[in-house]
Specification:
By secondary structure, this protein is an alpha/beta fold. β4, α2 and β5 form a beta-alpha-beta unit. The strands form three sheets. It has a seven-stranded parallel β-sheet, sandwiched between helices. A two-stranded antiparallel ribbon has the order 1-2. Strands 7-8 form a two-stranded antiparallel sheet. The longest helix has 29 residues. α1 crosses α9, α3 runs parallel beside α4 and α4 packs parallel to α6. The protein has one domain: NAD(P)-binding Rossmann-like Domain (Rossmann fold), CATH 3.40.50.
Length: about 300
């Protein structure tokens, strides 16, 4: 979660099981002991479903805001599963390092400088991905910015400051219009391919509101609304659409905040710690996998319990 939000975890005390007797399980004909297992080992079925992989090997995954923070962690997590990453970011300052890291992790990478708030930039980038790899399987709308200000800051009978129109427009442009433009550009490729997955970064503040973040909260509430609308529109094309709402996540930007602010954020998180970019990346990976094939039109909070309160 950006800026100004976010003690104890509830402790469960386990009870001894000394007086509980578990009756033996009758041995059905279709069950056998595992080969070479100790005689007292519980019976197992002859046919066991192997552990599932995430299914991302070879898939084409577009990630916006991929150069740092949650976006970078997500790119690396999908790369570990063998995905092909189209890494989009407004800056190419760390492009070479990101490409090397993705390839080292086991994926393939195509880095593109993309301004998600610019329709031509987005459409050109999407076409280049489809031309290079033939399709787009997963889209992760991760790019976002923060420009905090109170709507009206009052002091001594008159406004001391206000949220400017420019401040409003810049955040709405990247965080909400950007999600709209990128999704609009990618969806036709998914329809032609017979399906896909769209995941967007919302925020717990889009659910709860937050002081001094009118623009950011509005943008994230908009992402939630678009997610639910697109789930209705795109499900018939076998395109799943979901959003992830991070809480207090320890990105480099967050770590630069004053210690007192960080302590206050942790104090409002029932699990008593900040989340990591990998916590969010793992959630994206699961939502993109076939294991989440019936999850559609929902918002999953990754917040250590902030939404439910302390």
């Amino acid at each position: 979660m950006p800026r100004s939000e976010q003690d104890s975890a509830l402790e469960g005390v386990s009870q001894p099981l000394t007086d509980i007797t578990i009756p033996p399980t009758p041995r059905p004909n279709h069950e056998v002991a595992a080969a070479g297992a100790p005689l007292d080992m519980p019976l197992v079925r002859e046919t066991r479903r192997p552990a599932r992989e995430s299914g991302q090997r070879g898939r084409v995954v577009v990630i916006t805001g991929a150069a740092a923070g949650i976006g970078r962690a997500t790119a690396l997590r999908f790369a570990e599963e063998g995905a092909r990453i189209a890494a989009w970011d407004v800056s190419d300052q760390t492009a070479s390092q990101l490409e090397s890291a993705i390839k080292w992790a086991g994926g393939d990478c195509h880095f593109q400088v993309v301004d998600v708030a610019n329709a031509k930039s987005v459409e050109s980038a999407a076409a280049a991905v489809a031309e290079k790899w033939g399709r787009i399987d997963v889209l992760i709308n991760n790019a976002g910015i923060v420009r905090d200000a109170q709507l009206v800051k009052w002091n001594g009978g008159s406004p001391a400051s206000i949220m400017s129109e420019e401040t409003w427009d810049s955040v709405i442009g990247v965080n909400m219009k950007g999600v709209f433009l990128v999704t609009r550009a990618v969806v036709p490729y998914m329809i032609k391919a017979g399906g896909g997955v769209i995941l967007s970064a919302a925020s717990v503040v889009g659910l709860l509101g937050n002081f001094g973040q009118t623009n950011y909260v509005a943008s994230k509430a908009g992402v939630i609304g678009m997610t639910r609308t697109w789930a209705r529109e795109l499900g018939k094309y076998k395109i799943r659409v979901n959003a992830v709402a991070p809480g207090f996540i320890a990105t480099d930007m967050v770590r630069s905040m004053p210690a007192k602010v960080l302590e206050a954020m942790v104090a409002h998180t029932p699990l008593g710690r900040a989340g990591t970019p990998e916590d969010v990346a793992n959630t994206y990976l699961w939502l993109a996998s076939d294991q989440a094939s019936f999850i559609h039109g929902t918002v999953i909070s990754v917040d250590g319990g902030v939404v439910i309160g302390t």
